[in-house]
Protein backbone atom coordinates (compact mmCIF):
# COMPACT_ATOMS: atom_id res chain seq x y z
CA UNK A 1 0.00 0.00 0.00
CA UNK A 2 2.84 2.43 0.88
CA UNK A 3 4.59 1.52 -2.38
CA UNK A 4 1.48 2.50 -4.38
CA UNK A 5 1.22 5.76 -2.46
CA UNK A 6 4.87 6.58 -3.14
CA UNK A 7 4.50 5.76 -6.83
CA UNK A 8 1.34 7.86 -7.11
CA UNK A 9 3.08 10.75 -5.36
CA UNK A 10 6.06 10.50 -7.74
CA UNK A 11 3.75 10.37 -10.76
CA UNK A 12 1.84 13.42 -9.55
CA UNK A 13 5.13 15.29 -9.14
CA UNK A 14 6.11 14.33 -12.69
CA UNK A 15 2.71 15.55 -13.95
CA UNK A 16 3.18 18.85 -12.13
CA UNK A 17 6.65 19.22 -13.65
CA UNK A 18 5.26 18.51 -17.13
CA UNK A 19 2.48 21.05 -16.71
CA UNK A 20 4.92 23.66 -15.40
CA UNK A 21 7.15 23.08 -18.42
CA UNK A 22 4.16 23.57 -20.71
CA UNK A 23 3.48 26.89 -18.99
CA UNK A 24 7.13 27.90 -19.40
CA UNK A 25 8.07 27.49 -15.74
CA UNK A 26 11.10 25.27 -15.40
CA UNK A 27 11.46 22.57 -12.73
CA UNK A 28 13.85 23.10 -9.85
CA UNK A 29 16.43 20.57 -11.08
CA UNK A 30 17.26 22.26 -14.38
CA UNK A 31 20.73 23.80 -14.68
CA UNK A 32 21.26 27.39 -15.81
CA UNK A 33 22.60 26.18 -19.17
CA UNK A 34 19.52 24.00 -19.75
CA UNK A 35 17.31 26.86 -18.58
CA UNK A 36 18.80 29.18 -21.23
CA UNK A 37 18.37 26.48 -23.90
CA UNK A 38 14.69 26.09 -23.03
CA UNK A 39 14.06 29.84 -22.88
CA UNK A 40 15.37 30.14 -26.43
CA UNK A 41 12.95 27.54 -27.76
CA UNK A 42 9.18 27.24 -27.59
CA UNK A 43 8.99 23.64 -26.44
CA UNK A 44 11.13 21.14 -24.57
CA UNK A 45 11.64 17.84 -26.41
CA UNK A 46 9.99 14.98 -24.57
CA UNK A 47 13.12 12.86 -24.99
CA UNK A 48 15.17 15.44 -23.11
CA UNK A 49 12.74 15.38 -20.19
CA UNK A 50 12.86 11.59 -20.06
CA UNK A 51 16.66 11.60 -20.28
CA UNK A 52 16.88 14.06 -17.37
CA UNK A 53 14.56 11.86 -15.31
CA UNK A 54 16.56 8.72 -16.14
CA UNK A 55 19.81 10.51 -15.30
CA UNK A 56 18.39 11.60 -11.95
CA UNK A 57 17.34 8.02 -11.17
CA UNK A 58 20.83 6.84 -12.13
CA UNK A 59 22.40 9.49 -9.89
CA UNK A 60 20.25 8.36 -6.95
CA UNK A 61 21.23 4.73 -7.52
CA UNK A 62 24.92 5.62 -7.76
CA UNK A 63 24.72 7.68 -4.58
CA UNK A 64 22.93 4.85 -2.80
CA UNK A 65 25.58 2.35 -3.86
CA UNK A 66 28.34 4.69 -2.69
CA UNK A 67 26.72 5.17 0.72
CA UNK A 68 26.11 1.43 1.14
CA UNK A 69 29.74 0.67 0.24
CA UNK A 70 31.00 3.29 2.70
CA UNK A 71 28.81 1.83 5.45
CA UNK A 72 30.03 -1.71 4.70
CA UNK A 73 33.64 -0.52 4.93
CA UNK A 74 32.93 0.91 8.38
CA UNK A 75 32.99 4.62 7.55
CA UNK A 76 32.10 6.42 10.79
CA UNK A 77 30.44 9.30 8.88
CA UNK A 78 27.71 7.04 7.47
CA UNK A 79 24.90 5.82 9.73
CA UNK A 80 22.42 3.04 9.07
CA UNK A 81 19.49 5.48 8.68
CA UNK A 82 21.45 7.29 5.94
CA UNK A 83 21.94 3.98 4.15
CA UNK A 84 18.27 3.06 4.43
CA UNK A 85 17.03 6.47 3.28
CA UNK A 86 19.37 6.54 0.28
CA UNK A 87 18.39 3.00 -0.68
CA UNK A 88 14.69 3.74 -0.44
CA UNK A 89 15.02 6.96 -2.46
CA UNK A 90 16.78 5.04 -5.22
CA UNK A 91 14.18 2.25 -5.10
CA UNK A 92 11.19 4.61 -5.22
CA UNK A 93 12.71 6.62 -8.06
CA UNK A 94 13.43 3.44 -10.04
CA UNK A 95 9.93 2.04 -9.41
CA UNK A 96 8.39 5.34 -10.52
CA UNK A 97 10.49 5.32 -13.68
CA UNK A 98 9.31 1.77 -14.41
CA UNK A 99 5.69 2.83 -13.96
CA UNK A 100 6.17 5.77 -16.33
CA UNK A 101 7.77 3.44 -18.86
CA UNK A 102 4.88 1.02 -18.49
CA UNK A 103 2.36 3.80 -19.08
CA UNK A 104 4.28 5.07 -22.12
CA UNK A 105 4.40 1.60 -23.67
CA UNK A 106 0.70 1.17 -22.99
CA UNK A 107 -0.11 4.54 -24.59
CA UNK A 108 2.07 3.71 -27.59
CA UNK A 109 0.31 0.36 -28.04
CA UNK A 110 -3.08 2.05 -27.86
CA UNK A 111 -2.07 4.60 -30.48
CA UNK A 112 -0.67 1.89 -32.75
CA UNK A 113 -3.97 -0.05 -32.48
CA UNK A 114 -6.09 2.94 -33.52
CA UNK A 115 -7.76 2.47 -36.90
CA UNK A 116 -6.39 4.70 -39.62
Nutshell version of this structure?
The chain has four helices and no strands. By secondary structure, the protein is mainly α.
Could you walk me through the main structural features you see in this protein, from its secondary elements to its overall organization?
It is a single chain. This protein is mainly alpha-helical and 116 residues long. The protein has one domain. 77% of the residues lie in helices and 0% in strands. The chain has four helices and no strands. Helix 1 (2-22) packs across helix 4 and helix 3 (46-72) runs antiparallel to helix 4. The longest helix has 33 residues, at 80-112. The termini are far apart. The mean pLDDT is 81.
Helices and strands in order:
Layout: H1 2-22, H2 32-39, H3 46-72, H4 80-112
Helix pairs in contact: 1-4, 3-4
Helix fraction by DSSP (H/I, runs of at least 4):
over 70%
Number of distinct beta strands: 0
Q: Biggest sheet, in brief?
A: none
Give me the oligomer status: single chain
Q: Order of helices and strands, N to C? A: HHHH
- Please count the helical segments: 4
Q: Taking all residues together, what is the mean pLDDT? A: 81
Key terms for this structure?
mainly alpha; single chain
